[in-house]
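Repro case for the chain-ordering regression, as requested:
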Amino acid sequence: MMLLKILFRNAFHNKLRSSLTILGIAVAILAFGLLRTVISSWYSGVEAASTTRLVTRNAISIIFPLPIAYQEKIRQIAGVKTVSYGNWFGGVYIEEKNFFPNFCVDPKTYFQLYPEFVLDLLQQKAFLADRKGFVAGRKLADRFSWKIGDTVTLKGTIYLGNWDFVLRGIYHGRDETIDETQFFFHWNYLNEVIKKRSPNWADKVGFYMIGISRPDIAPDVALAIDNAFKNSLAETLTETEKAFNQGFIAMSGAIVTAIQMVSFVVIFIIMAVVANTMAMTTRERTGDYSIIKTLGFGAKDITILIFGESLVITATGCIIGVILTFPAAKAFGHSLANYFPVFLVSAETIYYDIAAAFLIAVLAAIIPTRHAIRIRIAAGLRRIG
Amino acid sequence: MTDQKSTIVEIRNVYKSYHRQSLIVPVLYDITFDIVEGEFLALMGPSGSGKTTLLNLIAGIDKIDKGTIRVGDVDITTLSETELAHWRANHVGFIFQFYNLIPVLKAIENVELPLHLTSLSKKERHLHAEMALTMVGLAHRMDHYPGEMSGGEQQRVAIARAIVTDPTILVADEPTGDLDRVSAEEILSMIERLNAEMGKTIIMVTHDPRAAQRAKILRHLDKGYLNDDASQNPL
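-- result from build under test --
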C-alpha cells in the first residue's frame, strides 16, 4: 500500500515533466488510434462483406464488361438464390471534389441482396416505378441537402453527357458500419441511352452480384459459374464479396503498409521519450531507492516502484489519448467523408492503444529498474547531498 | 560498566577495497574490534579514512572483501542480499547526514515505512510511528512533508524512523553534518538520550569533535587503519 502511495506521488512529483510526458503519450496514442482507424476504415468494405454474396466479373479485368445474357444462366446454377447486376457509372456531381460512388443497378434485385441498406417500402416502390429515379445514402443526401423529389444531374465521365435523376429514396445503414454515401439508379436507364448512342456497348454489365443459400457452398458455386462460361468470349472470375473487396484494397496495399509503419514509428518515438523520462526519474531518485533498499525493501519492491510509476504515467496518457481519439476521429471522418465513408474507432483500435501503452510502460522501465536494482546501496547513498 | 555487557558487534580482520575501473583502491585494512551492547561509539577520522565504509559494513549495506562481522548471533558476511535486507529491516536503524527521508511521504508515513516490512497491522503501524514522532517531539508535524520542515526537524523524523522498529543497533553517519549548531546540539542530545535512557547501541561516524564528545567510546581511523584501542571519552 505504501509502495503504491510512493509510486503514485512520484509519478506526479515533477509536475511539469510528468505533464509533458503524459501529453506526449496522449498525442502519440491519439495519432496511433487515428492511423489504426484509417487502416480499419480502409478495410471496412471487406469487413462489411457478406459471406452469402459472390461477385462475378470479367476474368481479364473488372474494366471489361459481361453480357446481360449471363444472368439467366447464372440463376440456373445450383445454390444461387438471387442474381443482380450493376455498372460503375463514374458520374461527377457539379465538380470532381464532390466525389461519391455511383452505380446503375437492377432495382428489383439489388436491394434484396443488401438487407443492410434499409429503404422504406414506399420509397422502394417509388424508385422502382421511376426509370430516372435514384436512391442515395443518408449521409450523401445530407451532405448535399437533397430532398425526395429533387432532380440531381451527374456529369458522365465514362458515359459522357449530363444525366438527370430524381431522388426517390434515401437508405440508411442497418448499423453504423454501413456505408451511407452511395448512389444507385436504374441500369435500364443507362442501357437504353447506350443502345441509342453506341449499340455495341449496350446490354453489358460491369459485375454480377449473386446471393447464395449458404456460405459453405460459395467455392462450389463460384467454380460452377466460372465453368459455365469457360471458353466463351467473356470468361468470368467469381469470388466472394470479401475476396473481391480485398482485391481492391490490395491495389492500395503500399499506402496501408506505409500508414502501418508510421503508426509503429509514432509508438517507437514515444517509447524513447518515456524511456528517457523514466531514466531521468530513476537517476534523480537513486538516493530514494537506496534508502528504501537500506530500510530492508528488496529488488521486487524497487521493480514495483519504477514499473508502477511508468505504468501510471503511460496509463494516464493512454486514457487521455483514447478519450481524445473519439472526437478527433469524428472530426477527421467528417472532413474526409469522401474517402472514408465509415470512419469509426473500433474496439480493436482501443485494445491496440492499450497494448501499445502497456508495451511503452514496460519497455521504458526495464533499463532504469535494472540500474536501480544493481546499484550498490553505498554508491546510491553517496549521490545524496 | 561495559565489561558486564555482552558483545553485540564483533569485527574480525576486516578488509575492504573498491574497484574503480581497472584500479583496486584499498579502504580498510585488518580491522578488528568489538562493540558491546549499549555502547555509544564514535568513529572518528579525516575524510577518506574509511569510517563511513566501516559503518556501512557493520550496517550490512556493503560487502567486505575479507574477514567477519557478527552482529548478535549472526555472521552478516555470509548472508545473501535478500537475507541481508531482511536482517537490516529487523536489526539496524539508520540516521544519515542528509536525513534521507522520502520527499513524497509525510513525516508519519516516512516513519511508518520500515514498519511495512513487519507483521504489524495498519493501526499498529500508525500507533508506533506516532509514538516515535512524539518521542522526538514532532507529533504536531506528522502530516508535514520533509520539504516543509527544517533540517533539524527532518533529522528528528529520521531518528524516529530509525528507532520505530526497535533495532539492535543504531548507525549514524555524520548526523549533524548538515545542521546548524543549535539543531546539531538538539540531535546529539536526542541520540545521547536514546543510548542513556533506552540503552540503544549506537555507532556514530563523525569528524566533528563536538559530536564525538557525546559518545562514550572513541575510535580513530586513519588511511584505513584502526589507529588505537578504544579510548573512554574524557567527557
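Ordering looks correct now. Chain A has two domains: 2-44+253-381, 60-234.
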